[in-house]
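Hi there. Long-time user, first ticket. I'm pasting a complex I've been working with (about 740 residues overall). I'd like to know whether the download I got is complete or cut off, because the file seemed smaller than I expected. Thanks.
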Amino acid sequence: MAVEAVRATSDTKVAPWNDPVIRGWVFQIVVVGLVAALAWYLVSNTLENLARQKIATGFDFLGREAGFAIGDTMIAYSPADTYARAIWVGILNTLRVAVIGIILTTFLGTIIGIGRLSPNWLLARICAIYVEIFRNVPLLLWLFLIYKLVSEAFPGPRQAIRMMGDTVFLSNRGLYFPVPIAAPIHKWMGVGLIVGIVGAWALHRWATARQARTGEPFPSILAGFGIVLAAPFLVWLLGGAPSAMSWPALKGFNFEGGTVIQPEFAALLLGLVLYTSAFVAEIVRSGILALHKGQSEAAAAIGLSRGQSMRLVLLPQALRVIVPPMTSTYLNITKNSSLAIAIGYPDLVASINVTINQTGQAIENILIIMAAYLTVSLSISAFMNWYNKQIALKER
Amino acid sequence: MIKNAIAVGVAAASIAGFSGIAHAGKDLDAIKARGSLICGVGTGTAGFGLADSQGKWTGLDVDVCRAVAAAIFGDSEKVKYVPTTAQQRFTALQSGEVDMLSRTTTYTLTRDTALGFDFPGINYYDGQGFMVNKKLGVKSAKELNGATICVSPGTTTELNLADYFRANKLSFKPVVIEKADEIRAAFFSGRCDVYTTDASSLYSVRAANVPAPQKADDFIILPEIISKEPLGPVVRHGDNQLADIVRWAHFAMLEAEEYGINSKNVDQMLKSEDPVIKRILGVTPGMGKALGVDEKWVVNIVKQVGNYGESFERNVGMGSVLKIERGLNKLWTKGGLQYAPPIR
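Hi, the file is complete. Here it is re-exported in full:
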């Protein structure tokens, strides 16, 4: 635009090297050319060096047998599977800890952030101390400490702590508990859950509309929870209520059957949640404090309880301040999960590191890991940006 | 871990950035210009490579670095040690961060070819073993079905373990932690039933790393040795002269032992009339010149580092806390596998 403006005001002919349009083009072409040349230099040099050192290149290794075992997998995996599957197992493990971590962190952080603003002196102090302790010690140290506690404090499998009538076992191998044996009805229960969520949402809309019309409140949150839980339960009953369970039992060295939360996963999740919650608490607190105190006074004046004024008046407005920094925090959880390698949780970085070591192809593997984290992070960003738009101040 | 990611990143960047390490002798020229050898060692395995409280490195693998420095510079102290984990080591060598590795690295086909390395020698013939707590009452590796096993990532051990259990139709759960200290701590705290690595390292850990109140006697090493682990120094492809020096520094220590030359008698041996000894010690010149080092190279190695037998006994044998038998690592003349081609 600036360029056009300049042209519009000067009709006189100028030499090409003084013409701002031509000059602009030349500079841009030169910059692009330099970047391209640098990229070409790096790529060709890398390939040449790899070839000279006779280091293998390309992505063929992904189809080869991985040969190493992974201790904690969400999908079936054995050492006979390929590197690609081993890396996929790692990606799923990273996603698992990130997603569960984000959800728990949001809850815990919000509670602590609000707690810190509580008029209750003791509660506010406890929350403040929590925040200062957890955010001022590096996450890695928390992970080491929690992992040591988990693996040293609990007894071996043969002396496991037995709970719930010998169905749940806690030992240094993890927390073993029974799970239902997979049945075809489980898929339909998932559908039921989705139907329940949609139903609850519809109910909430109806209740809000009715309240706006008639002023009569309706306990839509409680009722909503009821619908969400009842729908899959009904499906389960209709499906003949299959109740076969897989029970954990001590066999040889370890428990078999049931399912397990392993110490590495528990320690990583706990570390991430406790550490990041401190940051979330401060974000929530700052969001609420950013509101004029007239807001809470006005809410009190029309007779809303403290909880109602928080839920209906303060938080919705505070969210506009909270969401953007929350996005960064969620990204941090995802990326910090790579500290897993220090305590032996088999995440993406662990799979990639072993693959690099076995194949010697560092560059290809680093590209994969970058692409994977970038995809996950950009997805989180995109979702949070969308959500941010939803809650933005709507001007009517 | 972050550190690891940085190491890999630096490696990738330096592979991308610098060209022309190619010409024969270039690595050696760089070492000479620098005035010291950069040797990648382990992060601490008693007997093989461990720094004491003054930061002085000792061990069987460290002695290989010292012998190479003695051959190149005539001074075994001109070595800079860079500790590397099992996972970092290859990227560190590929990228030129270190000149050579000497840290219980198993010689395999993939590493020799696709990773772009050369293995100039085997300074310790090892095999993979299992260590368990006596309380478990296990007598054989075949009884380990369902066990939780601590193992270091990025090692042949990790792969052999998976192979062995597959071949014997047994199942196991791995616990994989990169730092050697952490994986041992996990084993001793009871997180795993079994710790597996090279048998030599198991003896080393049992002798030096068992935390109180547990004792070395609380743990047994199972009789099965499930793999061949020929351990040796590693150099990059491309500088054959450096590879030759590493190879012959190791052979020189073996030759010295075979011909009875040790750190105490090497000066008298210089007066020996035996033509073989005269050739080895450079009294009859030619060998050093052929290798591109000082004619006194073997004298320097033996005087400062010792012959192979001395190094073995001092670091891992009966003169050490490890008390490992020579076993396969006896000289060929005593029924072992350590065999050096003649220096002539």
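A couple of notes from our side: Chain A touches chain B through 52 residues (CB under 8 Å). The longest strand of chain A covers residues 168-171.
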